[in-house]
Design goal:
Helix 1 packs parallel to helix 2. The protein has two domains: 87 residues, ATPase, nucleotide binding domain (Nucleotidyltransferase, domain 5); 62 residues, 2-Layer Sandwich (Nucleotidyltransferase, domain 5). Helix 2 links the parallel strand 4 and strand 5. The strands form two sheets. It has a five-stranded mixed beta sheet. A four-stranded mixed beta sheet has the order 8-7-6-9. It has four helices and nine strands. Helices cover 30% and strands 39% of the residues. The longest helix is centred in the middle third of the chain and has 18 residues.
Length: 159
């Protein structure tokens, strides 16, 4: 049976998912520092149950540069060892998959910063934004009322 691994390190809450035998196993953890050891242990525990990884999906941003490097390097290492392909996905798009209608995906960028993009039925509508000092954001309020957006916040709101 094929097995696919997904890795997301774009926000303070990192995660791994393994799809195998039509089952999905998920691990998440809120990590401030040391994401590489937590991520490695979680992946090792998940893949010890399978014969081979057939593909890896990894989030490539926006998000914390260092954390994204950890995720991408981990994905590339697993792909090299397993002789499989890596599929990259936008961190914001990954969060709206399965949502219908207009959805505003947001990620905590830390240091009073947020990353956001508007999607409609999974397709990005317009550019990605980076907001500074997101605690008061009139632009977001205008966007919400103008387009009747379902807003989904991913990550920790308290930086």
């Amino acid at each position: 049976m094929a097995a696919y691994l997904a890795i997301d390190t774009a926000s303070p809450e990192i995660g791994v998912a393994l799809l195998h035998d039509e089952q999905v196993e998920v691990w998440t953890d809120r990590v401030g520092r040391g994401s590489e050891s937590a991520l490695g242990e979680a992946i090792a525990t998940m893949i010890e149950k399978i014969d081979r990884v057939n593909g890896v999906v990894v989030s490539v941003g926006p998000g914390s540069f260092t954390a994204l490097r950890v995720g991408v390097a981990t994905a590339l290492g697993i792909a090299l060892a397993s002789e499989c392909k890596v599929l990259e996905i936008c961190s914001l798009k990954a969060r709206v998959l399965g949502h219908q209608g207009r959805t505003l995906a947001m990620l905590d960028g830390r240091k009073q910063r947020a990353y956001a993009a508007l999607f409609e039925d999974g397709a990005q509508v317009g550019p990605r934004w980076t907001w500074i000092q997101v605690r008061s954001c009139p632009a977001l309020e205008r966007l919400h009322f103008k387009w009747s957006v379902k807003a989904h916040w991913f990550g920790n709101r308290k930086s």
